[in-house]
Design brief:
Aminopeptidase; Elongation Factor Tu (Ef-tu), domain 3; six-stranded antiparallel beta barrel; 11 helices; 30% helix
Protein backbone atom coordinates (compact mmCIF):
# COMPACT_ATOMS: atom_id res chain seq x y z
CA UNK A 1 0.00 0.00 0.00
CA UNK A 2 1.14 3.53 -0.67
CA UNK A 3 -0.24 6.93 0.17
CA UNK A 4 -2.30 8.64 -2.52
CA UNK A 5 -0.77 11.89 -1.35
CA UNK A 6 2.46 12.63 -3.16
CA UNK A 7 5.43 13.86 -1.20
CA UNK A 8 8.76 15.29 -2.27
CA UNK A 9 10.49 14.82 1.07
CA UNK A 10 14.17 14.01 1.23
CA UNK A 11 13.22 10.87 3.12
CA UNK A 12 11.22 9.57 0.18
CA UNK A 13 14.06 10.45 -2.17
CA UNK A 14 16.38 8.36 0.02
CA UNK A 15 14.38 5.15 0.05
CA UNK A 16 13.10 5.52 -3.51
CA UNK A 17 16.60 5.66 -5.02
CA UNK A 18 19.08 2.85 -5.51
CA UNK A 19 20.99 1.95 -2.37
CA UNK A 20 24.33 3.83 -2.26
CA UNK A 21 27.45 1.70 -2.72
CA UNK A 22 28.77 2.39 0.78
CA UNK A 23 25.49 1.32 2.34
CA UNK A 24 25.33 -1.81 0.17
CA UNK A 25 28.87 -2.71 1.20
CA UNK A 26 27.92 -2.35 4.88
CA UNK A 27 24.94 -4.63 4.26
CA UNK A 28 27.27 -7.14 2.60
CA UNK A 29 29.67 -6.96 5.55
CA UNK A 30 26.89 -7.75 8.01
CA UNK A 31 25.53 -10.63 5.94
CA UNK A 32 29.00 -12.09 5.37
CA UNK A 33 29.90 -12.29 9.07
CA UNK A 34 30.27 -15.99 10.03
CA UNK A 35 27.62 -16.26 12.74
CA UNK A 36 26.08 -19.74 12.87
CA UNK A 37 23.58 -20.49 15.63
CA UNK A 38 25.24 -20.18 19.04
CA UNK A 39 28.35 -18.47 17.64
CA UNK A 40 26.94 -15.12 16.56
CA UNK A 41 29.71 -12.91 17.92
CA UNK A 42 31.26 -12.33 14.49
CA UNK A 43 28.23 -10.30 13.47
CA UNK A 44 27.12 -8.78 16.76
CA UNK A 45 30.56 -8.01 18.23
CA UNK A 46 32.73 -8.03 15.12
CA UNK A 47 30.62 -5.80 12.86
CA UNK A 48 27.61 -4.22 14.54
CA UNK A 49 28.94 -3.28 17.99
CA UNK A 50 31.85 -1.26 16.49
CA UNK A 51 29.25 0.44 14.28
CA UNK A 52 27.05 1.19 17.30
CA UNK A 53 30.05 2.55 19.21
CA UNK A 54 30.89 4.80 16.27
CA UNK A 55 27.46 6.34 15.64
CA UNK A 56 25.87 6.49 19.10
CA UNK A 57 25.59 9.72 21.11
CA UNK A 58 27.46 9.71 24.43
CA UNK A 59 24.28 9.19 26.45
CA UNK A 60 23.38 5.95 24.60
CA UNK A 61 24.86 2.65 25.75
CA UNK A 62 25.19 -0.97 24.63
CA UNK A 63 23.82 -3.84 26.71
CA UNK A 64 25.67 -7.16 26.64
CA UNK A 65 24.56 -10.55 27.95
CA UNK A 66 26.01 -13.58 29.71
CA UNK A 67 24.24 -16.42 27.93
CA UNK A 68 24.28 -15.16 24.35
CA UNK A 69 26.21 -12.85 22.03
CA UNK A 70 23.26 -10.53 21.50
CA UNK A 71 23.63 -6.78 21.99
CA UNK A 72 21.21 -3.89 22.49
CA UNK A 73 21.88 -0.23 21.71
CA UNK A 74 19.76 1.66 24.25
CA UNK A 75 18.88 5.31 23.64
CA UNK A 76 17.90 5.96 27.27
CA UNK A 77 19.71 3.43 29.47
CA UNK A 78 18.10 2.92 32.86
CA UNK A 79 15.15 5.21 32.12
CA UNK A 80 12.27 2.84 32.82
CA UNK A 81 9.70 5.66 32.97
CA UNK A 82 9.80 6.20 29.23
CA UNK A 83 7.76 4.06 26.84
CA UNK A 84 10.24 1.67 25.25
CA UNK A 85 10.24 0.20 21.76
CA UNK A 86 12.48 -2.76 20.97
CA UNK A 87 13.32 -3.54 17.33
CA UNK A 88 14.88 -6.97 16.83
CA UNK A 89 16.96 -8.53 14.09
CA UNK A 90 18.65 -11.89 14.65
CA UNK A 91 22.30 -12.53 13.88
CA UNK A 92 22.24 -16.33 13.88
CA UNK A 93 22.43 -18.25 10.61
CA UNK A 94 21.18 -21.74 9.92
CA UNK A 95 24.10 -24.11 9.62
CA UNK A 96 25.12 -27.68 9.03
CA UNK A 97 26.85 -29.59 11.82
CA UNK A 98 29.39 -32.37 11.84
CA UNK A 99 27.77 -35.69 12.81
CA UNK A 100 30.65 -38.10 12.45
CA UNK A 101 33.86 -38.78 10.52
CA UNK A 102 34.15 -41.82 8.28
CA UNK A 103 37.22 -43.99 7.83
CA UNK A 104 37.58 -42.65 4.27
CA UNK A 105 37.67 -39.04 5.52
CA UNK A 106 34.08 -38.18 4.67
CA UNK A 107 32.60 -35.79 7.24
CA UNK A 108 28.97 -36.73 7.68
CA UNK A 109 26.75 -33.75 8.46
CA UNK A 110 23.21 -32.86 9.37
CA UNK A 111 21.32 -30.28 7.32
CA UNK A 112 19.44 -28.38 10.04
CA UNK A 113 16.82 -26.18 8.28
CA UNK A 114 18.13 -26.66 4.74
CA UNK A 115 16.46 -28.84 2.13
CA UNK A 116 19.10 -31.52 1.42
CA UNK A 117 18.71 -31.18 -2.34
CA UNK A 118 19.64 -27.46 -2.24
CA UNK A 119 23.08 -28.14 -0.73
CA UNK A 120 24.75 -30.45 -3.21
CA UNK A 121 27.99 -29.17 -4.69
CA UNK A 122 28.12 -25.89 -2.78
CA UNK A 123 31.31 -24.61 -1.18
CA UNK A 124 31.19 -24.22 2.58
CA UNK A 125 33.27 -23.13 5.56
CA UNK A 126 33.79 -25.38 8.55
CA UNK A 127 34.77 -23.90 11.92
CA UNK A 128 36.54 -26.08 14.47
CA UNK A 129 38.45 -25.51 17.66
CA UNK A 130 42.23 -25.92 17.73
CA UNK A 131 42.83 -29.47 19.05
CA UNK A 132 45.33 -28.21 21.64
CA UNK A 133 43.63 -24.88 22.42
CA UNK A 134 39.95 -25.23 23.31
CA UNK A 135 38.09 -21.98 22.63
CA UNK A 136 40.39 -21.01 19.75
CA UNK A 137 38.65 -21.48 16.42
CA UNK A 138 40.07 -22.22 13.01
CA UNK A 139 38.46 -22.23 9.60
CA UNK A 140 38.57 -25.08 7.09
CA UNK A 141 38.02 -23.99 3.48
CA UNK A 142 37.98 -25.93 0.24
CA UNK A 143 35.18 -28.40 0.92
CA UNK A 144 31.84 -29.02 -0.76
CA UNK A 145 28.65 -30.72 0.37
CA UNK A 146 27.91 -33.96 -1.47
CA UNK A 147 25.53 -36.91 -1.19
CA UNK A 148 25.62 -39.41 -4.05
CA UNK A 149 28.79 -38.62 -5.91
CA UNK A 150 28.48 -39.27 -9.63
CA UNK A 151 25.14 -39.83 -11.36
CA UNK A 152 26.49 -43.27 -12.30
CA UNK A 153 26.07 -44.42 -8.69
CA UNK A 154 22.52 -43.14 -8.19
CA UNK A 155 19.37 -45.23 -8.20
CA UNK A 156 17.12 -44.99 -11.28
CA UNK A 157 14.44 -43.16 -9.26
CA UNK A 158 16.97 -40.52 -8.27
CA UNK A 159 17.94 -39.96 -11.89
CA UNK A 160 14.32 -39.29 -12.85
CA UNK A 161 13.64 -37.13 -9.81
CA UNK A 162 11.09 -39.54 -8.32
CA UNK A 163 13.35 -40.11 -5.33
CA UNK A 164 15.20 -37.37 -3.50
CA UNK A 165 18.17 -36.93 -1.19
CA UNK A 166 17.80 -37.86 2.47
CA UNK A 167 19.50 -35.80 5.19
CA UNK A 168 21.62 -38.74 6.33
CA UNK A 169 23.20 -38.95 2.86
CA UNK A 170 24.97 -35.60 3.17
CA UNK A 171 28.70 -35.32 3.77
CA UNK A 172 31.45 -32.73 3.53
CA UNK A 173 34.00 -33.64 0.88
CA UNK A 174 37.53 -32.51 1.83
CA UNK A 175 39.16 -34.54 -0.94
CA UNK A 176 40.91 -36.84 1.57
CA UNK A 177 42.63 -39.92 0.10
CA UNK A 178 45.32 -42.39 0.99
CA UNK A 179 46.02 -43.84 4.43
CA UNK A 180 44.55 -42.87 7.81
CA UNK A 181 42.04 -40.39 6.41
CA UNK A 182 39.89 -40.34 9.53
CA UNK A 183 42.87 -39.74 11.80
CA UNK A 184 44.11 -36.89 9.60
CA UNK A 185 40.70 -35.20 9.76
CA UNK A 186 40.56 -35.61 13.53
CA UNK A 187 44.02 -34.05 13.88
CA UNK A 188 42.55 -30.89 12.38
CA UNK A 189 40.39 -30.65 15.50
CA UNK A 190 37.18 -31.43 13.62
CA UNK A 191 34.61 -33.08 15.87
CA UNK A 192 30.89 -33.66 16.27
CA UNK A 193 28.84 -30.46 16.49
CA UNK A 194 31.26 -28.24 14.58
CA UNK A 195 29.30 -25.69 12.50
CA UNK A 196 29.44 -25.44 8.72
CA UNK A 197 28.05 -22.47 6.79
CA UNK A 198 27.52 -21.72 3.11
CA UNK A 199 30.21 -19.67 1.41
CA UNK A 200 28.58 -17.10 -0.86
CA UNK A 201 28.64 -13.39 0.07
CA UNK A 202 25.87 -11.33 -1.48
CA UNK A 203 26.34 -9.65 -4.82
CA UNK A 204 24.19 -7.45 -7.01
CA UNK A 205 21.70 -9.27 -9.20
CA UNK A 206 21.03 -9.02 -12.91
CA UNK A 207 17.90 -6.92 -12.42
CA UNK A 208 18.38 -3.40 -11.07
CA UNK A 209 18.37 -3.03 -7.28
CA UNK A 210 18.23 -6.77 -6.64
CA UNK A 211 20.87 -8.84 -4.85
CA UNK A 212 21.42 -12.48 -4.01
CA UNK A 213 23.58 -14.78 -1.92
CA UNK A 214 23.50 -16.67 1.35
CA UNK A 215 22.06 -15.56 4.68
CA UNK A 216 19.73 -12.71 3.91
CA UNK A 217 17.99 -14.53 6.75
CA UNK A 218 18.53 -12.61 8.88
CA UNK A 219 21.42 -10.30 8.29
CA UNK A 220 18.85 -8.05 6.63
CA UNK A 221 16.97 -7.59 9.91
CA UNK A 222 20.21 -6.74 11.70
CA UNK A 223 21.20 -4.31 8.94
CA UNK A 224 17.82 -2.60 9.21
CA UNK A 225 18.17 -2.23 12.99
CA UNK A 226 21.71 -0.83 12.63
CA UNK A 227 20.75 1.64 9.90
CA UNK A 228 17.72 2.77 11.89
CA UNK A 229 20.02 3.48 14.83
CA UNK A 230 22.24 5.58 12.56
CA UNK A 231 19.28 7.71 11.45
CA UNK A 232 17.97 8.20 14.99
CA UNK A 233 21.45 9.06 16.27
CA UNK A 234 21.51 12.04 13.89
CA UNK A 235 18.25 13.38 15.34
CA UNK A 236 17.40 11.56 18.61
CA UNK A 237 13.83 11.14 19.77
CA UNK A 238 12.65 13.22 22.71
CA UNK A 239 10.20 10.87 24.40
CA UNK A 240 10.55 7.27 23.22
CA UNK A 241 13.25 4.91 24.46
CA UNK A 242 14.48 2.73 21.58
CA UNK A 243 16.21 -0.61 22.11
CA UNK A 244 18.06 -1.53 18.90
CA UNK A 245 18.47 -5.27 19.37
CA UNK A 246 20.70 -7.83 17.65
CA UNK A 247 19.48 -11.20 18.95
CA UNK A 248 20.68 -14.81 18.74
CA UNK A 249 19.28 -18.36 18.57
CA UNK A 250 16.22 -17.35 16.54
CA UNK A 251 16.50 -20.24 14.13
CA UNK A 252 16.11 -22.82 16.89
CA UNK A 253 13.29 -21.20 18.83
CA UNK A 254 13.72 -17.39 19.28
CA UNK A 255 15.66 -18.07 22.49
CA UNK A 256 18.02 -15.07 22.27
CA UNK A 257 15.33 -12.44 21.77
CA UNK A 258 13.20 -14.13 24.44
CA UNK A 259 15.98 -13.80 27.02
CA UNK A 260 16.65 -10.17 26.06
CA UNK A 261 12.95 -9.22 26.13
CA UNK A 262 12.62 -10.92 29.50
CA UNK A 263 15.45 -8.82 30.89
CA UNK A 264 14.64 -5.41 29.37
CA UNK A 265 10.81 -5.74 29.31
CA UNK A 266 9.98 -3.47 26.35
CA UNK A 267 6.53 -1.89 26.06
CA UNK A 268 6.54 -2.46 22.30
CA UNK A 269 8.46 -5.16 20.42
CA UNK A 270 8.89 -5.19 16.64
CA UNK A 271 10.55 -8.18 15.01
CA UNK A 272 12.40 -7.50 11.74
CA UNK A 273 13.00 -10.56 9.58
CA UNK A 274 12.89 -11.82 6.02
CA UNK A 275 9.55 -12.81 4.55
CA UNK A 276 8.50 -14.70 1.43
CA UNK A 277 7.81 -13.43 -2.05
CA UNK A 278 4.64 -15.50 -2.40
CA UNK A 279 3.92 -14.24 -5.90
CA UNK A 280 7.13 -15.77 -7.29
CA UNK A 281 7.22 -18.92 -5.13
CA UNK A 282 6.77 -22.02 -7.32
CA UNK A 283 3.86 -24.34 -6.59
CA UNK A 284 1.95 -22.05 -4.21
CA UNK A 285 -1.03 -21.29 -6.44
CA UNK A 286 -3.28 -23.90 -4.84
CA UNK A 287 -2.55 -22.55 -1.36
CA UNK A 288 -4.20 -19.21 -2.19
CA UNK A 289 -1.54 -17.12 -0.46
CA UNK A 290 -1.96 -13.37 -0.17
CA UNK A 291 -0.12 -11.14 -2.61
CA UNK A 292 3.40 -10.38 -1.40
CA UNK A 293 6.29 -9.64 -3.70
CA UNK A 294 9.78 -8.23 -3.53
CA UNK A 295 10.30 -4.72 -4.82
CA UNK A 296 6.98 -3.33 -3.55
CA UNK A 297 7.86 -2.35 0.00
CA UNK A 298 8.29 -3.94 3.42
CA UNK A 299 5.76 -6.39 4.83
CA UNK A 300 3.57 -5.87 7.90
CA UNK A 301 2.01 -8.88 9.61
CA UNK A 302 -1.58 -9.14 10.81
CA UNK A 303 -2.73 -11.96 13.07
CA UNK A 304 -1.04 -14.15 15.66
CA UNK A 305 0.07 -11.97 18.61
CA UNK A 306 0.46 -8.78 16.58
CA UNK A 307 -1.01 -5.57 17.99
CA UNK A 308 -3.63 -3.90 15.80
CA UNK A 309 -2.89 -0.59 17.51
CA UNK A 310 0.84 -0.73 16.74
CA UNK A 311 0.11 -1.85 13.19
CA UNK A 312 -2.22 1.13 12.74
CA UNK A 313 0.54 3.51 13.83
CA UNK A 314 2.96 1.90 11.36
CA UNK A 315 0.42 2.14 8.55
CA UNK A 316 -0.48 5.77 9.26
CA UNK A 317 3.16 6.84 9.55
CA UNK A 318 4.15 5.00 6.37
CA UNK A 319 1.24 6.41 4.39
CA UNK A 320 1.96 9.91 5.61
CA UNK A 321 5.57 9.59 4.46
CA UNK A 322 4.57 7.89 1.21
CA UNK A 323 6.53 4.74 2.10
CA UNK A 324 5.17 1.53 0.53
CA UNK A 325 4.28 -1.53 2.58
CA UNK A 326 2.47 -4.81 2.01
CA UNK A 327 0.17 -6.76 4.31
CA UNK A 328 0.95 -10.34 5.32
CA UNK A 329 -0.87 -12.53 7.81
CA UNK A 330 0.00 -15.15 10.40
CA UNK A 331 -2.04 -17.71 12.29
CA UNK A 332 -0.71 -18.97 15.61
CA UNK A 333 2.89 -17.84 15.25
CA UNK A 334 4.56 -15.02 13.36
CA UNK A 335 7.63 -17.22 12.89
CA UNK A 336 9.84 -14.30 13.92
CA UNK A 337 11.31 -12.65 17.00
CA UNK A 338 8.04 -10.73 17.31
CA UNK A 339 7.03 -13.70 19.50
CA UNK A 340 9.84 -13.05 21.98
CA UNK A 341 7.83 -11.06 24.52
CA UNK A 342 5.03 -13.62 24.52
CA UNK A 343 7.50 -16.47 24.92
CA UNK A 344 9.16 -14.60 27.79
CA UNK A 345 5.82 -13.93 29.48
CA UNK A 346 6.25 -10.15 29.09
CA UNK A 347 3.35 -7.78 28.48
CA UNK A 348 4.42 -6.04 25.26
CA UNK A 349 2.49 -4.82 22.24
CA UNK A 350 4.20 -6.61 19.35
CA UNK A 351 4.25 -6.91 15.61
CA UNK A 352 6.43 -8.23 12.80
CA UNK A 353 7.80 -6.47 9.74
CA UNK A 354 9.83 -8.01 6.96
CA UNK A 355 11.44 -8.01 3.54
CA UNK A 356 9.93 -10.31 0.87
CA UNK A 357 12.70 -12.50 -0.53
CA UNK A 358 12.96 -15.55 -2.77
CA UNK A 359 14.67 -18.91 -2.19
CA UNK A 360 14.80 -18.63 1.61
CA UNK A 361 17.24 -21.02 3.34
CA UNK A 362 19.28 -21.59 0.20
CA UNK A 363 22.63 -20.30 -1.05
CA UNK A 364 20.82 -17.99 -3.50
CA UNK A 365 18.39 -16.03 -1.36
CA UNK A 366 17.25 -13.05 -3.41
CA UNK A 367 16.07 -9.63 -2.26
CA UNK A 368 15.44 -6.05 -3.34
CA UNK A 369 17.13 -3.01 -1.82
CA UNK A 370 13.91 -1.01 -2.22
CA UNK A 371 12.15 -3.19 0.39
CA UNK A 372 15.04 -2.89 2.84
CA UNK A 373 15.21 0.89 2.51
CA UNK A 374 11.43 1.14 2.82
CA UNK A 375 11.57 -0.81 6.09
CA UNK A 376 14.37 1.36 7.51
CA UNK A 377 12.59 4.62 6.73
CA UNK A 378 9.16 3.21 7.53
CA UNK A 379 10.35 2.34 11.02
CA UNK A 380 11.97 5.74 11.41
CA UNK A 381 8.69 7.40 10.42
CA UNK A 382 6.83 5.16 12.87
CA UNK A 383 9.11 5.98 15.80
CA UNK A 384 9.00 9.70 15.08
CA UNK A 385 5.20 9.48 14.92
CA UNK A 386 5.15 7.72 18.30
CA UNK A 387 7.42 10.43 19.65
CA UNK A 388 4.97 13.18 18.61
CA UNK A 389 1.79 11.56 19.96
CA UNK A 390 -0.20 13.12 22.78
CA UNK A 391 0.65 16.66 21.71
CA UNK A 392 4.37 16.11 21.73
CA UNK A 393 4.54 14.03 24.92
CA UNK A 394 4.91 10.72 23.08
CA UNK A 395 3.23 7.33 23.09
CA UNK A 396 2.28 6.24 26.60
CA UNK A 397 1.66 2.93 28.29
CA UNK A 398 -1.87 4.12 28.87
CA UNK A 399 -2.31 4.40 25.09
CA UNK A 400 -1.21 0.79 24.73
CA UNK A 401 -3.61 -0.31 27.45
CA UNK A 402 -6.64 1.60 26.21
CA UNK A 403 -6.44 1.59 22.42
CA UNK A 404 -7.41 -2.03 21.80
CA UNK A 405 -9.94 -2.11 18.92
CA UNK A 406 -13.61 -2.47 19.91
CA UNK A 407 -15.38 -4.46 17.22
CA UNK A 408 -18.70 -3.93 19.04
CA UNK A 409 -18.32 -0.28 18.08
CA UNK A 410 -17.61 -0.99 14.40
CA UNK A 411 -19.73 0.91 11.90
CA UNK A 412 -21.55 -0.60 8.94
CA UNK A 413 -19.65 -0.91 5.66
Amino acid sequence: MTSKKKTTSKKQDTWAKSMPAAQFNFMREILAAPSPIGLEGAMSYGVIKPFFDKIKPKTWSVHQFKGNAGIVLDTHPGDDKRTSVMLVGHADKIRLQVRSIGTDGKIWVNCDSFLPCTLIGHEVKLFSQHPDKPGTYRIVNGGTIEAMGAIHFSAPAQRTGEKGIKPEMLFLELQMHGENCKERVEKLGIRAGDPIILDRPIRKGFTKDTFYGAYLDNGLGCFMVAELARLLAKKPLKNIRVLHTIATHEEIGRFGATAIAGELKPDVLIGADVNHDYDAAPGLGAKRMNTLTMGKGFSLTNGSITSSFINSIIEKASRKAGIPYQIDFAGRDTGTDAMAASLAGIDSAATSIGFPIRNMHTISETGHTFDVLAAIHGMEATLREMDKMNRGKGLTRSDLQNEHPRLDEAGKA
